[in-house]
Amino acid sequence: MDAIRVTVRRGDVVEAVHRVHVATTDGERWGDDLHFLLRSSSKPIQAIPFVEGYDDLDDDEIAIACASHHAEPAQLAAVRKVLARAGATVDDLENGLQECRPDGKLGHNCSGKHAGMLAACAAHGWPLHPYRDPAHPLQQRIAEVIGGGETAVDGCGVPTFARTLGEAAGLLTRAPQRIRDAMRARPELVGASSGATDTDLMRLRDGWIAKGGAEGLFCAAHEDGRGIALKAEDGASRAIRPALGLVLAIEEFLETPVRNSRGEVVGSIS
């Protein structure tokens, strides 16, 4: 089948059209088998060394290690909790600053992942720094669990791996049960308290875990073994929610309102 067309309207005027390519582990396909980087969609897999290092982790610690958070108070508190477990401070985080985010490096949307990486190093007896170096034992272990392959540098400074859409569909089916359980128990930490598509999918549909990534990527997996990946060809993340609604028959996702700065609904994405 062709890629899914997601149309952005303001009033009755079409302002943009995005093409979303989709693959499932059942062999369904919309569009092409694109090649791209996994970016933040791989966080539940990057968290595996963290979970391997401890048998007493709380759900909030694991969920925030898998998160692209919005610097909400509960999310920042969870990052601080993981840093305390690692015996580390905000200064130890190797992610940089993120524009328009509070609390310096702590407010970066990847700080939970980085705190989890520090805690993994502490648990396994690896040097804390430079933990983002591809040659560091932590990154070597992550490369092993992801399966290696072509890499680039992610926005927060750690390696990210390239995959095809078909390969990405199976990504989160490999997340350990402990990580799945924590993400489903605390979905508001993974994305946001409201408005994040990965958080909302986990709230609305039993059995699913999900994680969005930069440049219009979205991966999800069901406890029955099914996996899915969606990629907006032009990198527009706003196109993912309606396309996901179509593929998984989630009525609440089929149309997203377009609002102006006054909060008024002036169009739609569908």
Question: Runs with pLDDT <50, length 5+?
Answer: none
The structural class is alpha+beta
| Biggest beta sheet summary | 8 strands, antiparallel
Order of helices and strands: EEEEHHHHHHEEHHHHEEEHEE
**How many discrete domains?**
1
Rg (C-alpha, Å)? 18 Å
Q: Report the total helices.
A: 11
- Taking the alpha carbons of the first and last residues, their distance comes to 18 Å
Classify the helix fraction into a percent range. 25-40%
- Name the shape in a single word: globular
Q: Could you tell me the number of beta strands?
A: 11
Mean pLDDT over the residues = 97
Measured by DSSP, the beta-strand proportion falls in 15-25%
Regarding quaternary structure, what we see is single chain
Task: Describe the structure in your own words.
- There is one protein chain.
- By secondary structure, the protein is α+β, with helices and mostly antiparallel strands.
- The chain has one domain.
- The chain is built from 11 helices and 11 strands.
- It has helices at 43-46, 48-52, 59-65, 73-86, 111-124, 137-146, 165-169, 177-185, 187-190, 197-204, 240-248; strands spanning 4-10, 13-24, 29-30, 35-37, 151-153, 159-164, 208-213, 217-222, 227-232, 256-259, 265-269.
- The strands form 2 sheets. Strands 1, 2, 3, 7, 8, 9, 10 and 11 form an 8-stranded antiparallel β-sheet that branches. A 3-stranded antiparallel β-sheet has the order 4-6-5.
- A hairpin with a 5-residue loop joins strand 5 (151-153) and strand 6.
- The chain is globular, with a radius of gyration of 18 Å.
